[in-house]
Amino acid sequence: MIVSILLGLGVVMLAAAALLALYRMTKGPTTLDRIISADVILAMVVAGLTMEAVINRHATTLPIMLVVSLVAFAGSLSAARFFADQDRNTLVQEAHATSDAAAETSDGETSDGETSDGEGRAAR
């Protein structure tokens, strides 16, 4: 009796968590929010399959849970690598822009367009 009540409560909580993750997936401001919510939804699917296996007292869904877990892991890993590469490229571009701007100002021109005499003072 208590076990069935707890399992029912668990199903309701999993459904609520999946709905909240689905909301984040549709309204997420960034792509990373959507990817993370998809990973959460896959985790909820695995938890739901686990609860189904507990309720029916069998282990036939174990291979399905394993495959879904591996797909979720691979998706999270590939998204993390993609965003790490994207961040690295952004940082490299910003570094190049900063070094180019520094090189332009050190090539004999001050920030207001005047040329310098080599010692940092503006030439007149």
What does this molecule look like?
The protein is 78% helix and 0% strand. It is an all-alpha fold and 124 residues long. The model has no long low-confidence stretch (mean pLDDT 83).
Summary?
The protein has 124 residues and is mostly helical. It is built from 3 helices and no strands.
How far apart are the termini?
93 Å
| Overall tally of structural domains | 1
Mean of all residue-level pLDDT scores: 83
- What name is given to the CATH topology? Helix Hairpins
Separate helix tally: 3
Largest sheet: none
Please write the string of helix (H) and strand (E) elements: HHH
Overall shape: it is: elongated
- What is the CATH architecture term? Orthogonal Bundle
- What is the number of strand segments? 0
Overall radius of gyration: 28 Å
Poorly predicted ranges: none
Helix/strand-derived class? Answer: mainly alpha
> What is the share of helical residues?
over 70%
CATH class: Mainly Alpha
Q: What percentage of the residues does DSSP assign to strands (E)?
A: under 5%
